[in-house]
Amino acid sequence: MALKKKTIPDFLKMKEEGQKVTWITSYDYLTAKYVERSGMDMILVGDSMGMVQLGYDTTFPVTMDDMIRSCQAVRRGAPNTFIVGDMPYMSYQESDEDAIANAGRFIKESGCDCVKLEGGTELIVERMRAITQAGVAAIGHIGLTPQFMAQIGGYKAQGKSAAAVAKLIDQVKKLEEAGAWAVLIEGVPTIAGKAVHDAVSIPVYGIGAGSQVDGQLIIYADMAGYYDDFTPKFVKRYAEVGKVLQDAFTAYVEEVRNGVFPEDDKHTYKISPEEAAAVEKLMEK
Ligand code: KIV
What is the pLDDT of residues 220-254, one digit of tens each? Predict the structure, then answer.
């Protein structure tokens, strides 16, 4: 039986009942299909796609067209899972009009259920207000926000002092007030994740923010042992997909070179003995 896609009211109820939300990234049809089969609550089509799937060093070059194409594939693979589309760098920063147009495009063209914006500055809060007032559901994202990498000094843990935590609390409150239905907090100590969680009534989900939040997000290629350019400290590996693929590719190369693959009685099409004899004759000519 097909799963019923969860809605925002379902997620609010889960928070009320203390049920943790499970959330993972996905960027393509095949992965999304396996994710949906696992019973995952939500998928993020993250702009991390630029690094994981397209091989960029950062998420900066990712465009709206890249995100929409990827999200369409994920929707085809996971028709019954709540999907969050990640607004890429400079697709919402310039003006409220840009933010509304691109958020609306994401929903209309990709079939995602809501969008996510990185940052907690005054400007981002303003864009959050514009987008949600235009009728698009949105999630905020604070803490370690890769689109602010230059200002935060790279992929570094955030919220490591009382002053930094106070700033995160101020940001989460402003995002809630601007209409975000949930906020994601990334790369902070557990106590900072809890402080942000306790400061608002909307769901607060975490990635590398400890256990005291309403649910967990993880990047699928990190947890599956697929992306090995680097692995953040907060990742737990559940599989070694990269190794499995590497072994398979290497074995294939060896078998083709050694004439082991293909085996003609197993890996090819059948022909009747009469037609085979006729072909033999043809070849003799
Ligand atoms: O793009 C992404 O996958 C993200 C997560 C790192 C939070 O935004």
Answer: 999 999 998 888 999 999 999 999 999 999 999 99
C-alpha span between 143 and 167 (Å, rounded): 10
Listed in sequence order, the residues at least 6 apart from 44 whose beta carbon sits closer than 8 Å to its beta carbon are 23, 24, 25, 26, 83, 84, 86, 116, 217
Q: Considering 186, 275, 280, 284, which one is annotated as catalytic?
A: 186
What are 101-158's pLDDT values in tens digits? Answer: 999 999 999 999 999 999 999 999 999 999 999 999 999 999 999 999 888 888 899 9
Look at ligand 1, atom 3, and give the residue with the nearest C-alpha. 46
First to last CA, the chain: 59
What is the whole-number distance in angstroms between the Cα of residue 46 and the centre of ligand 1?
Answer: 5
Residue 45: helix, strand or coil by DSSP? strand
Residue 43, beta-bridge partner list: 24, 83
Tens digit of each residue's pLDDT (9 = 90 or more) over 181-229: 999 999 999 999 999 999 999 999 999 999 999 999 999 999 999 998 8
The atom of ligand 1 lying closest to the CA of 46 is 1
- In three-state secondary structure terms, 263 is coil
Average pLDDT, the chain: 97
Instruction: Give the residue from 220, 222, 235, 206 showing the smallest Cα distance to 21.
Output: 206
Ligand 1 in reach of 25 Cβ (< 6 A): yes
Say if CB 10 and CB 85 are below 8 A apart.
no
Ligand 1 in reach of 171 Cβ (< 6 A): no
